């Protein structure tokens, strides 16, 4: 637990990108935005059977390099028409709150060092990541594998230049002005999802994050480029890669959360609210997407040009 506390000042944006993006590190290593002439970030509107619009859904990227232009007028106008902004977490990420939540859940006495929890090929990659980030096993003494993975992901992203202040959520908060901001989850409940993972899924998560953080490949089909051009099919493919290719992790980190959010959103809409929902892009792609779950609850979903 003390090891977690020591690393908290280096986390800053903690778990959020690792939770929803999957394989994005190779792009972040380049430290610059993909070359895009015009953003086509996908926006979806929620309609009833008469075609009346009751809300909007936007997939986001939580941390971006500075100067990435993604906000387009259609998105701004949709938020203006809405009566509230709904994010994964309502409160802006607070370093101390995140650190306390992580320390509360992440420690178990007597755990072997992280490198000893991995098969030999992954141990070599973890050693490479440690050298790259200036870390070692001692930084993660008695820290559960899920928390090691999330901290490696956060520190690697920070080192590569991703900035949570340049992510979609801060921009949307500013644009929302005085509108109320609601959240589907809390930072503690997000960490709790990881803490409840079986040991095998935690190991897979650590293995895959290690591979991603160690990679220097220049991936063509990375999440941010796909997001900027509104390629939800490409995002769906990425949402089934890396650690999300594991059925248990996919169920816990995407499917189950989407179902819980769909229930909350359905109740919100039926109460008369007109929300603008902004959650990680992977939640709005694939067969278990939030759009499909809302359609199963009787709502019509249409992509906004």
Can you describe this structure?
The chain has one domain (2-304). Helix content is 49%, strand content 11%. It is built from 14 helices and 6 strands. The chain has a 6-stranded mixed sheet, with helices on both faces. It is globular. It starts with a helix and ends with a strand.
Quaternary: single chain
Tell me the β content. 5-15%
Strand order of the largest sheet: 4-3-5-2-1-6
Largest β-sheet summary: 6 strands, mixed
Helical residues, percent? 40-55%
Q: How far from one another are the termini?
A: 48 Å
Secondary structure category: alpha/beta
Shape: globular
Uncertain parts: 5-37
User: How many DSSP E strands?
Assistant: 6
Put simply, the count of helices is 14
Number of domains: 1
Taking all Cα atoms into account, the compactness measure Rg is 19 Å
Mean of the pLDDT scores? 84
Order of helices and strands: HHHEEHEHHHHEHHHHHEHE
């Amino acid at each position: 637990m003390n090891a977690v506390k020591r690393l908290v000042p280096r986390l800053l944006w903690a778990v959020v990108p690792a939770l929803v993006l999957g394989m994005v590190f190779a792009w972040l290593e380049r430290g610059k935005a993909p070359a895009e002439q015009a953003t086509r970030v996908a926006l979806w509107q929620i309609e009833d059977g008469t075609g009346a619009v009751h809300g909007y859904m936007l997939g986001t990227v939580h941390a971006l390099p500075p100067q990435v232009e993604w906000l387009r007028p259609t998105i701004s106008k949709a938020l203006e028409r809405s009566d509230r902004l709904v994010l994964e977490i309502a409160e802006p990420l607070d370093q101390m709150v995140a650190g306390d939540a992580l320390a509360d859940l992440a420690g178990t006495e007597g755990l072997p060092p992280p490198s000893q929890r991995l098969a030999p090929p992954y141990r070599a990659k973890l050693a490479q990541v440690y050298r790259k980030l200036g870390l070692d096993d001692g930084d993660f003494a008695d820290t559960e594998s899920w928390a090691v993975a999330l901290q490696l992901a956060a520190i690697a992203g920070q080192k590569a230049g991703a900035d949570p202040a340049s992510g979609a959520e801060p921009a949307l908060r500013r644009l929302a002005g005085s509108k109320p901001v609601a959240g589907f989850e809390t930072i503690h409940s997000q960490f709790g999802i990881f803490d409840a993972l079986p040991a095998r899924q935690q190991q897979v998560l650590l293995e895959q994050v290690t591979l991603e953080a160690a990679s220097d490949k220049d991936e063509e089909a990375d999440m941010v480029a796909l997001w900027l051009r509104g390629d939800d099919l490409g995002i769906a493919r990425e949402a089934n890669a890396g650690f999300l290719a594991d059925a248990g992790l996919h169920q816990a980190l995407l499917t189950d959360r989407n179902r819980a959010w769909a229930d909350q959103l359905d109740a919100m809409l039926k109460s008369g609210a007109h929300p603008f929902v902004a959650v990680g892009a992977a939640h709005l792609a694939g067969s278990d997407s939030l759009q499909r779950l809302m359609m199963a609850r009787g709502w019509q979903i249409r992509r906004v040009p």
